[in-house]
Amino acid sequence: MAIGDIGLMGALRTRMQWHQARQRVLAENVANADTPHYKAKDLAKPELPAAAAAAVSGAVGGSLGTVRAASVTLAATQAGHLSGNGGSAFKATGGQPFEVRPSGNAVDLEDQMAKSAENQLDYQTVASLYQQSLALLRTAVGRK
Question: 74: closest CA among 82, 84, 66?
């Protein structure tokens, strides 16, 4: 049996490959920050296979019960505190958080660098999980 035949290992490997491809796309966006009429690109997240999605939904909704989102509110101990009910002045504007330059370029370097850093951290997390899973398999087989 190959390591790729194990569902978890295959999913982790696929996720690492996706992060590598996404890093290439984000690097292209940064490299083309001054190219006229260039629009930033990104990759869609890979979806779980049907069997894995069923296993996850079965574990969450089945024997463990239903998971519900908890409502969290802020305590206002003084009259000058913000209400915390979502009606404050801080609201998402929607749409693009930046303007397109006169050259037609729509790459926001700050946004691309933040995505790149987040992607790198996610890749490191998945790589660590992959290494730990391999170590667990080696222990199960009896090798160190």
Answer: 84
Q: Whose structure tokens read 């391999």?
A: 134
**How far apart are the C-alpha atoms of 88 and 138, rounded to whole Å?**
54
* Residues shown for the chain: 144
CA distance 129 to 123: 10
Q: What is the pTM of this model?
A: 0.62
Listed in sequence order, the residues at least 6 apart from 44 whose beta carbon sits closer than 8 Å to its beta carbon are none
Among 33, 42, 24, 28, which residue's Cα sits nearest to residue 104? 33
3-class DSSP state for residue 41?
A: coil
- Local confidence pLDDT in tens for the 144 residues of the chain: 676 678 888 888 999 999 999 999 999 999 998 899 898 999 998 876 665 555 445 544 444 444 444 555 667 788 777 665 554 454 445 555 556 677 778 888 999 999 999 999 999 999 999 999 999 988 988 876
Residue found under tokens 């996720």: 15
Tokens 């933040």, residue located = 114
